[in-house]
DNA sequence: GTAAAGTATAGAGTAAGCTCTAAGGTCAAG
DNA sequence: CTTGACCTTAGAGCTTACTCTATACTTTAC
């Protein structure tokens, strides 16, 4: 597929897609005789994965290392496994911290709700969203 | 305490501390007669909290809103509770996504380790870090 | 075959979040 | 009463991650 379709299907700006490619996040982007990019179907998933990792706070460089290790059926399996373990540790740390924050938010929410009720205020949209 | 001590105890650059203050992340920073900042003891915790939230991907603006709601024993309890619920939902979404990523990383790590062993490579630092 | 739409590259511009520099005021030690 | 370590502000500079502009080539539609 051409860049316009990938842009449409991923919601990622075409300039950003070219930037990701330049940064090594998208590999195997072949070109037609007209020099236009021709993305494979799986590019959609790859871009989605990049977006997700980005939202989780990984930098472009980290994402590149991670994704490249993931698709490496190459020699450096031990190195790849090491990288995985490293990222996993980082992910686990984030999960732990987020749990702590959630706990804090939860108790604060309850406290504020109680306060609001005490002041006789409506809680229309307030009570336990989702 | 003065800025040098807060810098030392939090590990956050003094320019950054002033920047955080300007952005409304640090409140009640009083001044002595010499116009020097005089931070209260709890500023250390407050800065630590800012750092943690930052690492979790919250923007300066989001952190300001969140922390100000947390310390508000003011009128807008209902609004504060709503804010808490909102952030909590975002935090929970992140946790879910990170769990998924961890799962992926875990299976990839195992695959790569198996590959490495199959190739007769050493796994010195590799096997399940932490 | 020409206009409109799509693609290419190179490089400028933007926003967030720092990080540092310059120029100057404060204060304790010697 | 000066030296040196601290503090102040204003504003410049830097990095990351886009986002856009300019210029030019290709394709599609009429």
UniProtKB/TrEMBL annotation, chains A, B:
InterPro entries: DNA-bd_dom_put_sf, MerR-type_HTH_dom, MerR_fam
Pfam families: MerR_1
Keyword DNA-binding among UniProt keywords: yes
Residue stretches making up the HTH merR-type domain: 1-69
Assigned keywords, A-Z: Coiled coil, DNA-binding, Transcription, Transcription regulation
tRNA processing among keywords: no
MF term (GO), any: DNA binding
Regions annotated as coiled coil: 84-115
Domain of life according to the entry: Bacteria
UniProt xrefs under SMART domains: HTH_MERR
Name recorded for this polypeptide: Transcriptional regulator, MerR family
Lineage: Bacteria, Pseudomonadati, Pseudomonadota, Gammaproteobacteria, Pseudomonadales
């Amino acid at each position: 597929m051409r860049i316009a379709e990938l842009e449409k299907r991923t919601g990622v700006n075409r300039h950003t897609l070219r930037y990701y490619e330049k940064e090594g996040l998208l590999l195997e982007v072949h070109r037609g005789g007209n020099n236009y990019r021709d993305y494979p179907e799986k590019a959609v998933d790859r871009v989605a994965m990049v977006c997700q990792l980005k939202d989780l706070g990984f930098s472009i460089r980290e994402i590149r290392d991670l994704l490249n290790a993931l698709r490496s059926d190459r020699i450096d399996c031990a190195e790849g496994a090491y990288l995985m373990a490293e990222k996993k540790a980082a992910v686990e740390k984030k999960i732990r911290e987020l749990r702590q924050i959630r706990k804090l938010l939860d108790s604060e929410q309850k406290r504020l709700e109680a306060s609001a009720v005490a002041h006789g205020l409506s809680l229309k949209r307030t009570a336990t969203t989702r």
